[in-house]
């Protein structure tokens, strides 16, 4: 879990992070969702988990119609919703993001398409990239019944389409969202040269912009 090793010497971090060179990533081509959540008045929320919240937050901050993205923890209880406890992998939380979006500009199913295509690898179980453990699982936390139905339908749709070489591991879960500490918010923009950001997250943002040019801002 590279990002949990702040005491490693800088030179060692560069080795672990591929000497600062971002690997090429591409958006997985996925079909548009056959089922979506009807647009409702006002802003809506989506809660998604897919590995380190730094990169997830960075990708969705670049999506048109997204007003705000907050990194946090979902699936556990309030008393252990903190970085130290969650990192023990015993709290049942997942690192997650809460997206505030305008459904008149971007739909819930479109957010799911980005989530599955480029924000993370939905076929990995309890890990993403260099990070392993249940807090890095792929999970969707629907905020209402319509979101739950749309998420299940899209997972079934892209599974039938054979979009991935392995089965989709993403689970539909219930649980509250708790914001993470201030140091984890907007981490990508505040730490553009951090070795983890350069190695793992900048390629995701670049892949999103290349794969979704009309959706990127």
UniProtKB/TrEMBL annotation:
Q: Which GO terms describe its molecular function?
A: L-methionine:thioredoxin-disulfide S-oxidoreductase activity; peptide-methionine (S)-S-oxide reductase activity
Residues spanning the signal sequence: 1-24
For the Peptide methionine sulphoxide reductase MsrA domain, which residue ranges apply? 46-196
Q: Where is the active site?
A: 52
Asked if tRNA processing is a keyword of the record, the answer is no
* EC number of this enzyme: 1.8.4.11
Tagged with keyword Oxidoreductase:
yes
What keywords were assigned to this record? Answer: Oxidoreductase, Signal
Q: Matching InterPro entries, A to Z?
A: Met_Sox_Rdtase_MsrA_dom, Met_Sox_Rdtase_MsrA_sf
Q: Which PROSITE patterns match?
A: PROKAR_LIPOPROTEIN
**Which reactions does this protein catalyse?**
L-methionyl-[protein] + [thioredoxin]-disulfide + H2O = L-methionyl-(S)-S-oxide-[protein] + [thioredoxin]-dithiol; [thioredoxin]-disulfide + L-methionine + H2O = L-methionine (S)-S-oxide + [thioredoxin]-dithiol
In the record, the note on similarity to other proteins reads: Belongs to the MsrA Met sulfoxide reductase family.
Described function:
Has an important function as a repair enzyme for proteins that have been inactivated by oxidation. Catalyzes the reversible oxidation-reduction of methionine sulfoxide in proteins to methionine.
* Protein name (database record): Peptide methionine sulfoxide reductase MsrA
Provide the taxonomic classification.
Bacteria, Pseudomonadati, Pseudomonadota, Alphaproteobacteria, Sphingomonadales
């Amino acid at each position: 879990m590279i990002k949990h090793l702040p005491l490693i010497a800088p030179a060692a971090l560069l080795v672990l992070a591929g000497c600062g060179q971002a690997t090429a990533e591409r958006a997985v081509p996925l079909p548009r969702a056959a089922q979506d959540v009807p647009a409702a008045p006002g802003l809506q929320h989506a809660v998604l988990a897919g590995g380190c919240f730094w990169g997830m937050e960075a990708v969705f901050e670049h999506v048109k119609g997204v007003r705000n993205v907050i990194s946090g923890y979902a699936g556990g209880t309030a008393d252990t919703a903190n970085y130290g406890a969650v990192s023990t992998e015993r709290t049942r939380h997942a690192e997650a993001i809460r997206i505030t979006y305008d459904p008149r500009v971007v739909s819930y199913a479109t957010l799911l398409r980005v989530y599955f295509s480029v924000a993370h690898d939905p076929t990995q179980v309890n890990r993403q990239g260099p990070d392993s453990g249940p807090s890095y699982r792929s999970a969707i936390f629907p905020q209402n019944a319509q979101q739950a139905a749309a998420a299940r339908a899209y997972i079934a749709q892209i599974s039938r389409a054979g979009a991935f070489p392995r089965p989709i591991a993403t689970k539909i879960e219930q649980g509250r969202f708790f914001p993470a500490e201030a140091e984890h918010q907007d981490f990508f923009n505040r730490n553009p040269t951090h070795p983890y950001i350069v190695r793992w997250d900048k390629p995701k943002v670049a892949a999103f912009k290349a794969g979704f040019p009309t959706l990127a801002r």
